[in-house]
């Protein structure tokens, strides 16, 4: 089948209801890897939802226990048509965040797919079930219409991305041969604009940090002891206030990157406008430079006492979970030591600093001039009728370092979501127009790889 008719077949998969039906079944699987989840549901997603689908496509499927105790399972599927052809590695994660059903608006619930116009609501509709579903169905369309892929494909699905890809790096190290490929082509994160494809070659790193002030056991009456006992919540708030200034500009020198070079600034110059607060973040940077080329610090949660039923008492402790998102050039090994030095210098030795639960993501960035990157960019431009937005890295965090550092692959991510999708929060949703175009451009991309297999293999 020629390229035009294959793209039409991809559109029909969405228009005919196939995507919604497939996605509804995946959303119904409560594959939560966080506190609300059960390990049985993580295995079931791979064994009952993914394995039959991939086996029917001619993939050899293996499911593995996590190499780390208490970790979630992983799946590798392989379809090797000819060792002389290039091999594309496709990644996805089937785990989702806590459902938090009480936070969703009336008429919606996290594990039931509900369509309202062009919006598909449900946990995993944006992150990441629809994204790897689109790529898998694009591969299937090519196999069905042409009888073959025309290249080799491997698929890796993990079930712990929302807890920091726990055990993924150890698994990759032990299974390099099973995961051998020429390029990673995967989907996660959002597009910059709803009507234009995006591609990025890396991601900001992410590390969560717990700050704690424990002064005494129990609470003490705020009248009898007010003015006598130190307040841990005030101490913690004052300590956090030294990390940035009033507009969120980072004050720790080791946390301020040096990698926002002229070539990166040039790449970010013509991106579409970003939704932002004009008085927040680095004052001398553009919004795109702040989110793609710089580090950011956030307080994710704070606790002292009971906010739902406050008592007239001075708490004995206070804690906060904070996060640093960081770009290439930030020394991940020095993030917490630098914070410790800073707090000590500011007079807060009583504030404990500990890494939060979950793996830290390392920052990665891959050259936009690599031949594979240019090939994918040209394919997307031809299919969409416009140039995609090309980013040096995603603003969010992904386990991209496992592919670049352990497997040694060029990495290209093509997201099928949008910035206002509600991922990690209530009312998560996907947009049908993005999904429709996503199936089309991915199917065409895989066809283009098949038709240029010899030249692409020569790149490696």
Automatic annotation (TrEMBL):
Hydrolase keyword on record: yes
InterPro entries in alphabetical order: Cyt/Met_Dipeptidase, Peptidase_M20
Molecular function terms, GO-annotated: metal ion binding; peptidase activity
Annotated GO biological process: proteolysis
Pfam families on file: Peptidase_M20 (PF01546)
Superkingdom of the organism of origin: Bacteria
Keyword Metal-binding listed: yes
Keywords: Hydrolase, Metal-binding, Protease
NCBIfam families: PRK07079.1
Listed name of the protein: M20 family metallopeptidase
Originating organism: Rhizobium sullae (Rhizobium hedysari)
UniProt lineage: Bacteria, Pseudomonadati, Pseudomonadota, Alphaproteobacteria, Hyphomicrobiales
């Amino acid at each position: 089948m020629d390229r035009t008719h294959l793209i039409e077949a991809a559109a029909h998969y969405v228009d005919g209801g196939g995507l919604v039906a497939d996605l509804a079944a995946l959303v119904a699987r409560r594959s939560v890897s966080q506190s609300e989840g059960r390990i049985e549901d993580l295995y079931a997603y791979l064994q009952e939802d993914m394995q039959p689908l991939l086996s029917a496509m001619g993939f050899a499927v293996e499911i593995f226990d996590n190499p780390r105790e208490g970790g979630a399972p992983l799946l590798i599927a392989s379809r090797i048509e000819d060792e002389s052809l290039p091999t594309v590695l496709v990644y996805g994660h089937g785990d989702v965040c806590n459902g938090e059903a009480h936070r969703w608006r009336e008429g919606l619930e996290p594990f039931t797919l509900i369509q309202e116009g062009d919006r598909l609501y449900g946990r995993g509709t944006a992150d990441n079930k629809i994204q790897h579903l689109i790529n898998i169905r694009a591969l299937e369309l090519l196999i069905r219409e042409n009888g073959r892929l025309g290249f080799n494909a491997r698929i890796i699905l993990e079930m712990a991305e929302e807890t920091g890809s726990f055990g993924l790096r150890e698994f990759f190290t032990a299974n390099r041969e099973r995961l051998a490929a020429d390029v990673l082509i995967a989907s996660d994160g959002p597009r910059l604009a709803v009507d234009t494809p995006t591609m990025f070659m890396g991601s900001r790193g992410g590390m969560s940090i717990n700050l704690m002030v424990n002064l005494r056991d129990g609470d003490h009456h705020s009248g009898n002891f007010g003015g006598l006992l130190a307040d841990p919540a005030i101490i913690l708030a004052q300590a956090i206030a030294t990390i940035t200034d009033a507009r969120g500009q980072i004050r720790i020198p080791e946390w301020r990157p040096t990698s926002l070079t002229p070539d990166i600034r040039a790449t970010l110059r013509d991106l579409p406008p970003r939704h932002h607060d004009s008085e927040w973040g680095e004052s001398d940077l553009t919004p795109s430079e702040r989110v793609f080329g710089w580090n950011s610090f956030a307080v994710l949660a704070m606790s002292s006492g009971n906010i739902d039923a406050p008592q007239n008492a001075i708490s004995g402790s206070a804690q906060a979970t904070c996060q640093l998102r960081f770009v290439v050039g930030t020394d991940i090994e020095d993030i917490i030591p630098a914070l410790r030095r800073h707090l000590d210098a500011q007079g807060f030795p009583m504030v404990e600093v500990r890494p939060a639960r979950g793996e830290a993501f390392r920052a990665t960035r891959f050259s936009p001039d690599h031949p594979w990157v240019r090939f994918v960019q040209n394919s997307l431009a031809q299919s969409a009728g416009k140039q995609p937005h090309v980013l040096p890295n995603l603003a969010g965090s992904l386990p991209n370092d496992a592919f670049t550092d352990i497997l040694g692959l060029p990495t290209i991510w093509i997201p099928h979501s949008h910035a206002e999708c509600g991922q990690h929060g209530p009312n998560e949703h996907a947009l049908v127009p993005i999904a429709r175009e996503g199936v089309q451009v991915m199917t065409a991309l895989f066809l283009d790889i098949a038709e240029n297999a010899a030249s692409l293999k020569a790149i490696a």
